[in-house]
Amino acid sequence: MSTSVTIAIPIYKRLEYLPGVLRTLQAQTHDNLDILISDNGLIGPKLEEIVDQHLTRPYRLRRNPEIVGITDHFNQLAREAAGEYFVLLSDDDEISPNYVSSLASALDSDPDIGVALGKLDVIDEHGTVVPRKNGGMDLPPIMSGREFVHAWCHSVYNFVCFATNMARTADIKRVGGYPESLPMGTSIDNALLLKLCGDRRIALAFDATFRYRVYEASHGLALPYRELARDLKAFLRFLDKDPVLQSFGNADRASWSAMKSDLREMTWRTYRHRWKGMYRNRLSAIDWVRAAFAMPFITPYYWSVIVTIFRRGARAAKHRLYSWKSILEQGE
User: Fold this and answer.
1) Whether the Cβ atoms of residue 161 and residue 189 lie closer than 8 Å to each other
2) Which of 17, 56, 71, 278 is exposed most, by the fewest CB atoms within 10 A?
3) Residue 326 above 90 pLDDT?
């Protein structure tokens, strides 16, 4: 029999995308699945009705008596996983039919592989694939943790999201699961991935696909800037203080120093990208400037935002100057 794999589906209150998720589970070619569906939104019997309507495979349904935080919920699923391998699949994302079989084969092939990843497609709320610059499809199928982090942070391949991958359940439990120091969940998938791959290898199985749904109301895009800055600052502290990462750093200082440098830069660049685009469109001018200074002091970040603010101010002044000149010329 093939290796047992737990696919864990955390449910909060959203149900509109669940039938599509269940159809992807029904279509999996892997024959040894432990499907674990968890109600963390006090949904009641409607959830079971939807599952039974769209899924004929055996499954387990658990319910939390009260709503818990996202990190606690994910850790509940990891603790209760019965499979040798573990996949977390959000209630609005999808996977290709060969996803489990392909990634399980990669883990089966080498005990030194800590995590297996598939190709990532971004889909919108209607399930349409969003064109994007993938790049990096010629990455080697097996990479060291350091090589992988460098490719991730420098967008050699535009991974976008690590919410869904496959790892050994025992390894997830060994490293303590999703970090409790990141209770809001913004970076918990990144954090767990780092703990699993720091001193291990990563397998890239690009014949299988994880379809990540992105839309305006999704968690990451809906975050106010103060919450995003708070969560990213917590991730930076995690890089400095997590005992698993500290242990890896003590064993291989050069590798961890290079990885941490890449990760710190990626973190502030992520915030800057949203600040220059999404938050600039949402905030008043004064709040947009305030948002720039919500991040901790990181020299290249602050140089960058100061230049951006100065240039925007210069463009605004130039625009006002031309407006006044036009008014004066009309008056003549």
Assistant:
1) yes
2) 56
3) no
